[in-house]
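Researcher: I'm preparing a figure for a lab meeting and need a structural model of a single chain. I don't have an experimental structure, so a prediction will have to do for now. The sequence is pasted below. Please return the structure as tokens so I can convert it later.
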Amino acid sequence: MSHPMDPTPAAAAYDAFLRDTAPASRDHALWTPEDGALPALFLSHGAPPLYDDAHWIDQLHGWARDLPKPRAVLIVSAHWESAPLAISSPTAGTPLVYDFSGFHRRFFEFSYATPDATWLAEQVVGLLPDRETVHVTGRGLDHGAWVPLSVMYPHADVPVIQMSMPTHDPARLADIGRRLRALREQGVLVVGSGYGTHGLPFLTREMVVDNAVPGWSSEFDAWTAEALADVDWDRLTRYAEAPGMPYAHPTVEHFTPMFVTLGAADGPAVPTTVIDDYSFGLSKRSFQIA
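Model: Understood. Here is the structure written out token by token.
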């Protein structure tokens, strides 16, 4: 976290990325039907500190470059819990929601003006009506969406729709994911945005400074990794019984977006883990699944 008295400019790593790496991504090949369905993603989204972490920036941007550039992104973030189900404003230049505090003022000045996504909003509304009433709102993108996407697609040239989480029930979230599965065949990247572990109240200053991984974080992460490797989705639904709980997730909104991702997959399969390290002692586990 940048501090006003810190001599290192806030988001210095992101500035270097925009200068040195991002320009080359303008040639990122756009998805075509010949590429087949895009995978569904679960990512640990970070927050403003991501912009000060060159390694994490490289991980997320490299992941995006390894996939075709999507026609659009539909993202479900831990930071929008709202029922009935709702989607963000589809208009071009949707504003950002700065849903954090205590950070350098620069992070409240970021912009990420994505293109019009009306066509995607219409697709989402059409896919969900028999089970879920979808409300189109004027809400902007919160940091669970715009922070990682501004690294993955730094030119803000991919349309984005954010969808709320109307529940934490794994079965219902997986059903929503299944109904969104057809979007992947149209070049839409379906993303669940949460965090591998999120026990912020239980981190000490020493843990943060040293990036020390507390036992509850590593134990819960190992349990998640094992369940994913075993393709044991049923075990994942019993996350409340996992080792490290409730410290790993004192509230569950950063874990449950995973069930949208799993539901959007073609079927049970071993995910491809892309990121499996830690930041401030919290698991950054992120994966994709076809």
